[in-house]
Automatic annotation (TrEMBL), chain A:
Bilayer topology term: Multi-pass membrane protein
PANTHER family: DIPEPTIDE TRANSPORT SYSTEM PERMEASE PROTEIN DPPB-RELATED (PTHR43163)
Amino acid composition bias (Low complexity), ranges on this chain: 1-16
Protein name: ABC transporter permease
Region (Disordered): 1-34
InterPro entries recorded: MetI-like, MetI-like_sf
Domain of life: Bacteria
Ranges annotated as spanning the membrane: 52-70, 149-169, 190-209, 221-240, 279-306, 326-347
Keyword Protease assigned: no
Provenance organism: Cellulomonas phragmiteti
Cell location: Cell membrane
Predominant place of localization: membrane
TrEMBL record, chain B:
Recorded family membership: Belongs to the ABC transporter superfamily.
Topology of the protein relative to the lipid bilayer: Peripheral membrane protein
Protein name (Swiss-Prot/TrEMBL): ABC transporter ATP-binding protein
Organism listed in the record: Cellulomonas phragmiteti
SUPFAM superfamilies: P-loop containing nucleoside triphosphate hydrolases
Compartments (UniProt record): Cell membrane
Length: 358, 481
């Protein structure tokens, strides 16, 4: 990108003098070019390109790691695959050789690796060594369920947390603030499986309002999502409270008030957006923690999410499934980061890093 | 529109912070309150506006165009904000929403904003154009220079056409050119029949505004009258002291006409030094020699590269071309011959560490002689008990004097003082610089003083390097996009 020519006058060498001189700074503002924010669109584009490259890099790294795992596992891959296909009792040297020839396992490792990358590039993730099912299908199925769960949890946590945080910030040190503070500590100190079991006992077993576990109806998603949301809402409340207190005590909010803006206008025009810049970044991080950290909750509630898929893949040494879930999770991280970065860039015009501006 | 304040009293925890019998604000005549930090001048203005923080006990009466108001009922004047009473804030860069374009911030204060946004936006553009900053309408606050931000804040504060304008330390952090600019804007408001109450510790601003001046100290008004009378022939001894604290009137033992003694050893030799920043040339082909005991001021408007030049001469910033050589300024154990004093001492001390520990680190690291710290504390009239506190628990002037002690403990051969008093009021500035220069004189330290205050530069330095500044437009900030 070309560097803009320095505007205005040629620089004169400063003299070493005793005399004073007055400067004509700002004498001719009319001649100045308009100040624009220029490249927000461009910055977004650059960011998308960078994230896309990152996504490619992540996929290459994950597939290479899985390839390495495949090759360092003890035993002959052809025999294992044949066993997966025909059952252990029916594996013969001939069937193993047939698999070897069919899949090109007799080629040099680097050729196999290139082929492996090619498959990954076309998102052909192969079939499960155990069930024989299409890995892409399995992963998408699991990812879909996990995203449902994480999305619902994030929504619940945001609604609960932002409402509680904003209420607490209304009067720092007041009763509501202390109550929310207690909630934050409680919600964070209970591990998710305890919260999950408590909710099962209270809402499913005692009150009979919701199904205990499983999937299939929207009602099934409520308990696991609530379990995740409880812990998260405490953190969201804490971050919201601090951000709101900080913004409301800022000079620009005070200036807006003394210019005659009503409380509602100050909230809509100044507080929300500035709190948003903090909150979006935070929720992005939490979304990642959710996607990757739901395994425990998925286990408690028998939720067929991607954590579930991954656990089973690891348990059965099902390398294609592990690879598929790893790629899906890695891409989810990249995707969430991209969404957060774009949202932050649009909310906050201040250049956040030189790479975006330059 | 006239405003009268009667018997305004502000108390906190048994202490009286403001006790002012009466103030009359009339259209067409500026009223300026001057005084040191903590004199209560800011509180008086905010009591009138109704913007005091909760927790203060406020009493008094005021009338706005004959309509009585209870000063104690701070919320009572809220409906008048923006339309009758307006505040021009301190540090305009902080008063503008960082996520909002300048024209939108200005437009939202327009009386028509709620009904007709387009008309409000037009009004905002007109007002910005009237102030010569139309080209900044689409910019965000972080892209503005200090002077431009001040004009934008002025546009935002006055678009509601409030006849009463209160300016609270509006010249804080502005260089001379930007301050003169601001004074012209404020005078325009007065000449248009507006009421103006300005709070400042800048006597030059008070002179530029004209009208009446009130001198406040320890919650009370000591003297009042026309500016030209009070600030030339003061009747109260405190006003006389305040006037004597202006650098142009200093008469100190350490002041001198010549330079260091002939044949003082060379410390820094700069040859054909050039440096650009963000695509803008700050200085080209600069030659400068610094000898032991030299006192050189680096002056120029904000953004002209004064601090950068200082750090280049200390070899703490690289140069684009040219050469800076140091002679016998190398750092060794027990010897740190180059020291720097920063503008804001609260940022150069760790916030949660007691001052004794913060200074003790320097003492131990450099093997400072025992008793030296106590000796310097005595010279600077600082109570050793202050050292048990944290940086937030002492005043700005005291903390800057502690920073001076930290630097001078090490007998530096060269000291870079970067706007060391620009955040302090006149009396504190005098006390702080007197303390600093006493040590500089005694130790024969070479001093590089970065300042935008030319009268201060004249008082302190033997020589000046003036950086012209060129064009400080945001285009330079944005170069490369």
């Amino acid at each position: 990108m070309s560097t803009g020519a320095p505007a205005g006058t040629a620089t004169t060498p400063p003299d070493v003098t005793d005399g004073d001189r007055t400067d004509q700074d700002g004498a001719a503002p009319a001649a100045l070019p308009p100040v624009t924010d220029g490249g927000v669109g461009r910055a977004v584009l650059l960011l998308l390109v960078r994230r896309a490259l990152q996504a490619v890099g992540v996929v290459v790294a994950v597939t290479t790691a899985c390839f390495a795992i495949m090759h360092t596992l003890p035993g002959d891959a052809a025999y294992r695959i044949a066993a997966g296909r025909y059952g252990y009792d029916f594996v013969t040297a001939a069937s193993a050789e047939a698999v070897r020839a069919e899949l090109g396992l007799d080629r040099p490792p680097w050729q196999q690796l290139v082929g492996w990358w090619g498959d990954a590039a076309r998102l052909q993730l192969g079939t499960s060594l155990v069930t024989g099912a299409d890995v892409r299908h399995e992963v998408l199925h699991g990812l879909g369920h996990t995203l449902q769960l994480a999305g619902l949890a994030l929504l619940l946590a945001s609604v609960l947390g932002i409402a509680a945080g904003a209420a607490a910030a209304h009067r720092p040190g007041g009763a509501v603030d202390r109550l929310v503070g207690t909630w934050v500590v409680l919600a964070r100190s209970l591990p998710p499986f305890v919260v999950g079991l408590l909710l099962v006992v209270l809402l499913a077993v005692q009150a009979g309002l919701l199904p205990v576990a499983g999937s299939g109806t929207p009602a099934h998603a409520v308990l696991p999502a609530l379990t995740l949301a409880v812990g998260l809402s405490g953190l969201v409340a804490r971050v919201t409270r601090d951000a709101v207190v900080h913004v409301r005590s800022s000079e620009y909010v005070r200036f807006a008030q003394t210019r005659g803006l009503g409380a509602g206008a100050v909230l809509r025009r100044h507080v929300l957006r500035n709190v948003g810049t903090t909150l979006v970044a935070y929720l992005g991080v939490q979304a990642l923690v959710l996607v990757e950290g739901v395994i425990v909750v998925e286990s408690v509630f028998a939720w067929p999410g991607i954590g579930h898929t991954l656990v089973h893949g690891v348990f059965w040494r099902d390398v294609p499934v592990i690879q598929g879930t790893a790629i899906a999770l890695a891409l989810a991280v990249v995707a969430v980061n991209t969404v957060v970065d774009v949202a932050t860039l649009l909310l906050d015009p201040r250049p956040r890093e030189t790479a975006v501006v330059a | 529109m006239t405003v009268h304040l009667h018997r305004v009293v502000v108390r906190h925890a048994g202490r009286t912070l403001v006790d002012v019998a009466d103030v009359h604000l009339e259209p067409g005549r500026a009223v300026t309150v001057v005084g040191e930090s903590g004199s209560g001048k800011s509180l008086l203005a905010h009591a009138a506006l109704g913007t005091l923080p909760a927790g203060l006990a406020v009493h008094g009466a005021m009338s706005i165009d004959g309509v009585p108001h209870d000063v104690g009922d701070q919320a009572g004047r809220r409906p008048l904000w923006g339309r009758t009473l307006a505040l021009l804030p301190q540090e305009p860069v902080l008063a503008l929403d960082p996520t909002m374009r300048v024209r939108d911030v200005v437009a939202e204060g327009a009386p028509t904003f709620a009904r007709d946004r387009r008309a409000a936006r037009r009004a905002a553009l007109e007002r910005l154009a009237g102030l010569g900053v139309a080209h900044a309408a689409g910019a965000y606050p972080h892209q503005l220079s200090g002077g431009m931000a001040q004009r934008v804040a002025f546009a935002a504060a006055t678009i509601g056409e409030a006849p009463v304008l209160v300016a609270d330390e509006p010249s804080k952090g502005l260089d001379v050119a930007a301050r003169d600019d601001l004074a012209a804007l404020l005078r325009r408001h007065v000449e248009g029949g507006g009421v103006l109450l300005t709070i400042t510790h800048d006597l030059d601003l008070a002179r530029a505004l004209g009208g009446d001046v009130l001198v406040m100290r320890e919650a009370e008004v000591l003297e009042r009258g026309p500016v030209e009378q009070v600030l030339t022939t003061p009747t109260h001894p405190y006003t006389a002291r305040l006037l004597a604290a202006e650098p142009a009137r200093w008469a100190k033992a350490w002041m001198r006409d010549g330079g260091p003694p002939e044949g003082s050893p060379l410390l820094v030799h700069a040859e054909q030094v050039t440096r650009t920043l963000g695509g803008r040339r700050l200085f080209t082909g600069l030659d400068l020699d610094l000898r032991a005991g030299d006192r050189v001021a680096l002056t120029g408007p904000s953004g002209s590269g004064k601090t950068t030049l200082g750090r280049v001469l200390l070899r703490r910033h690289p140069v684009d071309s040219g050469r800076v050589t140091h002679h016998d300024l190398a750092r060794r154990r027990g010897r740190a011959p180059v020291q720097q004093l920063h503008q804001d001492p609260t940022q150069s001390f760790p916030a949660f560490v007691p001052l004794r520990a913060a200074l003790g680190d320097a003492v131990r690291r450099h093997g400072v002689a025992p008793g030296r710290l106590e000796e310097l504390l005595g010279t600077m009239r600082l109570d050793p008990g202050l050292l048990e506190r944290r940086p937030g628990g002492v005043s700005g002037g005291e903390l800057q004097r502690l920073a001076i002690i930290r630097a001078m403990l090490l007998h530096p051969a060269l000291l870079l003082a970067d706007e060391p008093t620009s955040r302090l009021d006149l009396l504190t500035q005098e006390e702080t610089l007197d303390a600093l220069m006493g040590q500089v004189e005694q130790q024969g330290t070479a001093l590089l003083l970065v300042t935008h205050d030319t009268s201060l530069a004249h008082a302190v330095a033997d020589r000046e390097v003036v950086l012209p500044g060129g064009v400080t437009t945001p285009t330079a900030v944005l170069a490369g996009r």
